[in-house]
Design a protein that fits this description.
This protein has about 375 residues and is an alpha+beta fold. About 50% of the residues lie in helices and about 10% in strands. The protein has 20 helices and 9 strands.
């Protein structure tokens, strides 16, 4: 088949035209590879386009240098050279064969055989190539699998499969049999993939599948996960773009579960802190039921914590709790500045540092009681009365 869609045509920028002309002039084959081909066949313009070539990294470097083209962030060991043409970056990788791999590091051998390169790619739907005349090179029936929504990996189910139960039985059996092998994969790599699962479709179904196939213990997830909570939170967050950790926190029963996940996956400090925050506060930090100000407990928390990311964390908690109305209010609310400083208190004749500190604390309580409405003069007059 030949692809001539508007999405495909839109890729032909001045930079890409120059790149294809250069490779053709030097008699090296160049094709679009991997996920970009899948997206184009689905009628979607890809955000990132990767290219594959028969040229070795050394040949590419010589070619680009001769043409006066700048190269950046080269990863020659993996066969990748990135060229910058017309203010665009083009990442081009030499066709390769994985010789050996331990799950973390692969030794590669370069090849000029397109089918050999397609063989090492994990998914049929990602092992297709596209020529610049629109010709599809499909060595393992990837296009048929794409049309039939048949995929071989959790990460892609949420992006490709229409119904959550559309799985190939043999594939699920193979995953269950080989789940232990995930213990040898680096935590950082697993976290990249898991985050894509958590931000795709059918998330709750895939989380249950990860547990049903006994994959969970090999990727740092707790054996005794709170799957009922996960069911509830998955519904709460639907349509509200939760952070991956917001969803994942529903599986954790105690804060130690977050710590164990961090040991396995090497998550960021921000992600770890969000997980710890949600697990600690999800039951206690809730809306005020006996008040006309249901958001007040959350506002009090933000003001008391005085941390720059406190509002963002509270917004994630509100998504988790399904408090969509309060979430909108919280996103529009900004932390009011406390109007009194130590300097203001000195002006009314108090010089003791200890006394100033105690008074500031008292005034902050008064300010909080007033719903953060009291202004400086009113608060200072409260000192004079006392």
């Amino acid at each position: 088949m030949k692809l001539q869609s508007p999405e495909f045509q839109s890729l032909f920028t001045e930079g890409l035209k120059s790149l294809t002309e250069l490779f053709a002039k030097e008699n090296y084959e160049l094709r679009i590879a991997g996920g970009a081909v899948r997206d184009l066949l689905n009628g979607v313009k890809p955000q990132d386009v990767d290219f594959a070539t028969t040229a070795t990294p050394t040949q590419m470097k010589e070619m680009f240098q001769s043409a006066g083209i700048r190269m950046i962030n080269n990863k020659e060991k993996h066969g990748t050279i990135t060229a910058r043409l017309h203010e665009e970056n083009f990442e081009v990788t030499t066709l390769r064969i994985d010789v050996t791999t331990d799950g973390r590091h692969a030794e590669v051998e370069f090849t000029t055989d397109w089918q050999k390169d397609a063989e090492w790619r994990a998914l049929t739907i990602n092992s297709m190539f596209l020529g610049f005349d629109g010709t599809l090179f499909d060595y393992f029936n990837g296009y048929a699998d794409l049309k039939n929504k048949k995929v071989r990996y959790f990460r892609f189910c949420g992006r490709i499969v229409d119904k959550p139960g559309d799985h190939d039985h043999e594939t699920l059996e193979a995953i269950a049999e080989n789940a232990k092998g995930l213990a040898g994969i680096s935590g950082e790599r697993i976290w990249v993939e898991l985050k894509k699962v958590l931000t795709g479709g059918h998330v709750n179904h895939l989380i249950h599948l990860i547990y049903d196939l006994d994959v969970a213990p090999h990727i740092g997830l707790p054996a005794n996960a709170n799957l009922e909570e996960s069911n509830k939170v998955s519904k709460n967050v639907e349509g509200f773009s939760p952070k991956p950790m917001t969803l994942l926190a529903s599986l954790f029963k105690v804060q130690d579960d977050v710590t164990k996940l961090d040991l396995r996956l090497k998550i960021s400090k921000e992600e770890k802190n969000l997980g710890l925050f949600i697990v600690k506060n999800r039951k206690d930090l809730i809306k005020a039921t006996d008040s006309s100000e249901p958001l007040k407990p959350y506002q009090d928390f933000v003001i008391d914590s005085r941390e720059p990311d406190a509002t963002a964390r509270v917004c994630e908690l509100l998504k988790y709790q399904g408090e969509h109305g309060l979430l909108t209010e919280m996103q529009q609310w900004s932390v009011p500045p406390f109007p009194v400083s130590g300097h203001d208190i000195r002006k009314v004749g108090i010089s003791s540092g200890k006394e100033i500190g105690a008074l500031l604390q008292q005034l902050r309580k008064q300010w909080k009681k007033s719903g953060y409405q009291m202004e400086k003069d009113e608060l200072l007059s409260y000192i004079k009365k006392s």
